[in-house]
Amino acid sequence: MGPGVKENETTATEGRKQFQLIIFLCLLNISSFVVPVRGFAMKNCKISYNIAICVQSKLRAVPQDIPSTVKGFDLSANKISRVKISDFKNLPVLTKLELNRNFISQIDNGAFANLISLKKLNLNNNKLVELREDLFNGLSNLTELRINGNRIRAVASTSFKSMISLTFLDISQNKLHDIRKVHSIIQHLPQLRELYIQKNGFTTFHSWELTNSSLQLKYLDLSRNPMTVFQITADVLPNLTWFNVGGSSQKMRWDVRNKTFFSRVSTLDITGLQMSLNDMKTLLESVNSSLTCLRMNAMNHNFAALINISCSIPTLSKLQLRNYKLSSVSSDLIKLCINVTELDLAKNQIQNISDNTFRSIQRLRILDLSRNKLSSVPAATRNLPILQELDLSSNLISKLECDDFANQTMLRQLNLYQNSISALKGCVFKDLIRLQVLKLQSNQMSELHGAFNKHLPNLRQLLLNQNKLTAIKHGEFRGLQSLQNLSLHHNQIHQLEMGCFIGLMNLTDIQLQENRIKEDEINKGSFNDLINLRRLELRDNNIRYGNNSTLPNAPFSQLSRLDTLGIALQHGKGKSYLPHNFLQGLTNLRVFNTRNIQLLTLHKDTFIYTPQLQELDISTNEFRDLSPELFSPIPNLKSLYISKTILGSLEFLVNASLSKLEFLQARKNQYSVISEEIIKSVPALVYVDLQGNSFRCDCDNAWFLQWIENNNQTQVFDAYNFTCNYPVHLKGKELLELDISSCSVDIEFIYFISTTCTVLLFMVVSFTYHFLRWHLAYAYYLFLALLFDTKHKNKQAPKQYDAFISYNTHDEPWVVQELLPKLEGDQGWKLCLHHRDFEPGKPIIDNITDAIYGSRKTICVISRRYLESEWCSREIQVASFRLFDEQKDVLIMVFLEDIPTHELSPYYRMRKLLKKRTYLSWPRAEEHTELFWEKLRQALKTREDPGEDIFQLTVVDAHWQ
Predict the structure, then answer these.
(1) How much is the pLDDT for 775?
(2) Got the DSSP string for 78-139?
(3) Is the peptide bond before 906 cis (omega within 30 degrees of 0)?
(4) Would you say 613 and 589 are in contact if contact means Cβ atoms under 8 Å apart?
(5) Averaged pLDDT score across all residues of the chain
(6) Is the pLDDT of residue 676 over 50?
């Protein structure tokens, strides 16, 4: 076996290896291309602002189709009983997890191990009984843990050891019973600042049970425990500032040996605490130097005694005294509270307050008298010159007098809601020059009687909703030049007089929904004075237009700064239209809600006035079709609500130019097919809600099904509950269960076949080029010769030349100096030379073929340069094909150089065929040049009969045989 064969085998082996490698890489590329990605079509949840919401979904296990990018996960109010180790393994960026209100009784160890970013965990109201060792492993970044409302009895010593960042812990309403179990928890929590352990059945609290802990607590809630003893003998709570120890159902003994132990407590809550009066004094004395806020509601001691004890604390400024059965309050009762600035006497059933009750507490800034039984504004409040907030809500006040708020020039907020006030007087608010917030909702007012047309220059917010107002008169709010928010919703307003909002130059928000306003009231320019208005709510009124005609005066033409507009019907029948200039002037409108006004259509020019519109709600109307042109003026639209219409298709989106649309809600329509063009027309879509539509379960929806399951940008809400409506035999079947394999070609198989064929073709081409390229080159030129011959074989024109000289330009000197003088000068032959006789402007290939077929013979002057020339190669191929085709001796070869056989590669087979034809060698004729020219003359002279004798010269190179 020769080395050449060995080399070929090695090459073939390497070739096979390369082919196998190419196939492997191609298959690997295919598999990576078709692997499905997790989309946002979740079975029971939805994504909102990067939070997965699965509330009240009747889940019995944690869903596994949640995107790994969510930062919030709300599983509240489900039926989950066990948290498994695999439930949260793919949520590395989750920061908040809500598991409250489930039936969780078991949590596997390591269930939270992968939640490395979790900050807040809520396990409230479950059925946990035990916190086992290493339960919270992995939660080193957790800062807030809530386990309120479980049945926890036992806590392992290492349960909390990994939560080194925890600052807030609420483990209230469990069954710990022993404070030492709390110690086992907090000893591993160096950053803990807030601890809530109320209602755990603790009967005693001894500081020695916590002595091994380094507590930095600032907030501690021990309320609602049946403690009988509270004993502090060591300073275990040196940083405590907020302390709640109230609500004990047992009489408690207070034993704090050193008054400095609670010297930093500023807020104390002893509501409902059962203890002796002496212990009460001792308790309050322990916080005597720092306490600012005291809550002691529903105590069983004498009310006056409690006030005397509490108000004797010199630092006290906030006092809450609720849930006492007081029918009246006198000046003697709170005369010691001279330093109090905030007094809360709500929920005490107070009916009367003497006029001088608050005279002694001149520093009072906030007074809460809500949820009592006052029938009028107490005159005692007039003696509070620096009062800033007064709450008289939820009482029995039926009318307001002119002197009710006399001298209260410093008042900032006044709450009078949920009373029985039927009317106002023009003088009632005359002294409230600094009032900013006035709440009068939920009363019985039908008339305002000019109460707001002169006074209240600094009022910012006025709530008059849920009254019985029927009309807003001219100049009704003239005096409220600073008003920003006006609530008039849920009244019976049906009349808006011209100029009713005059003076409200700074109003930004007005709510008029749930009234009886008709289109005539807004058409007359009632809102023209609200030039700075940002939000106008007119939903659930009686606004209806009977035709689509143009309004003579657009109702909102002066509201160029309006941001949000809502308009909808409250009741009534009949079809409605929206005049196409209804929104004229609203150049900055971003949100428009026009749902449920029984619209039949929208004019294509409706939104030409609102180029900034970003949110549009046209749900619950009777649209049969929408023009894409309708949306052309609002290219910035991001949210579109179009539910409960009779639209049969979303095709209008295709040409609507909504490239920025992110949110689409289209529930309960007649959409049967969602095409690829529809989805691609809204490339920015991140949320789509298509619940309750009549989907067709056939191949028309095949692309839509694939998109639901594979897209990783758009959340398709409730997609797993989509059901089929057509065809009839599939009605009720879930859409995502439809087998669509027959609807499309197997893309993976096609990729495999096409890739394989490509690789095989590449290998064949490479093999052919390496081993057969010269054969192909020869075949190519032979084919060209065939074409040329076919073109000229029927031409019988007489020969113009005795010979055509085929030579390379580099050999032109020999042709001109040697060949031409001898053959044309001495022997008289007529020759054809390309540089002299080719027709100018004619294609080269045509000149060549015409010259060869127009000459009796062709002389090829062959050199190495000749073999390298493309045109020379074509000339000799055409000439040789003429030789084969005509079977005439028409070809003479003259070699100017000795050329070895292996350099004749593409002409080797041709030489074998022409070995009996005439050929001459110029280098061999150096000593016999005359004989060379004579033999050439004889070759030109011989007839073209191939049977005639062939001339042989001694100057011919013998190795050519």
Answers:
(1) 58
(2) S---EE-TTTTTT-TT--EEE--SS---EE-TTTTTT-TT--EEE--SS---EE-TTTTTT-
(3) no
(4) yes
(5) 85
(6) yes
Q: Model confidence at 32, in pLDDT bands (50, 70, 90)?
A: very low
Hey, what are 825's tokens?
């000068």
CA distance 617 to 440: 31
Lowest mean pLDDT among 210-219, 251-260, 599-608: 210-219
Task: Say which CATH topology domain 39-193 has.
Answer: 3.80.10
In terms of Cα–Cα distance, which of 591, 590, 592, 614 is closest to 602? 592
User: What residues are paired with 269 via a beta bridge?
Assistant: 244, 295
- Side-chain half-sphere CA neighbours of 330 within 13 A: 4
Decide if pLDDT at 11 tops 70: no
Q: What is the spatial distance between Cα 877 and Cα 99, in angstroms, rounded to a whole number?
A: 88
Give the separation between CA 110 and CA 312, rounded to whole angstroms. 54
| Cα end-to-end span (Å), the chain | 30
CATH (one of 3.15.10, 3.40.50, 1.10.10, 3.80.10) for 202-324: 3.80.10
Q: Do domains 39-193 and 202-324 have the same CATH topology?
A: yes
CB within 8 A of 918, min separation 6: which ones?
889, 891, 892, 893, 939, 950, 951
- Angle at 319 (CA atoms; ends 394, 302), nearest 5 degrees: 90
Compute CA distances 871 → 842, 848, 849, 868, whole Å.
15, 9, 11, 9
- Residue 31 pLDDT class (50, 70, 90 cuts): very low
Residue type, 852: I
* Dihedral in degrees, nearest 10, Cα atoms 312, 314, 319, 324: 0
**pLDDT value, residue 961:** 30
CATH of 771-960, one of 3.40.50.10140, 2.130.10.10, 3.40.50.720, 3.50.50.60: 3.40.50.10140
Contacts by residues 812-815 (CB-CB < 8 Å, ≥ 24 positions apart): 814/861, 814/896, 814/922, 815/861
- 139 pLDDT tier (thresholds 50, 70, 90): very high
Is the pTM higher than 0.90? no
**Residue spans per domain, the chain:** 39-193, 202-324, 771-960
Neighbour-count burial for 398-407, b at 16+ CB within 10 Å, e otherwise: ebbeeebbee
Burial class of 11 by CB neighbour count within 10 A (0 to 12, 13 to 18, 19+): exposed
253 token code pair: 């003994």
pLDDT for position 899: 75
Predicted local confidence at residue 5, as pLDDT: 33
Angle 143-149-151 (CA atoms, 0-180°, nearest 5)? 110
Which pLDDT band, with edges at 50, 70 and 90, does 333 fall under? confident
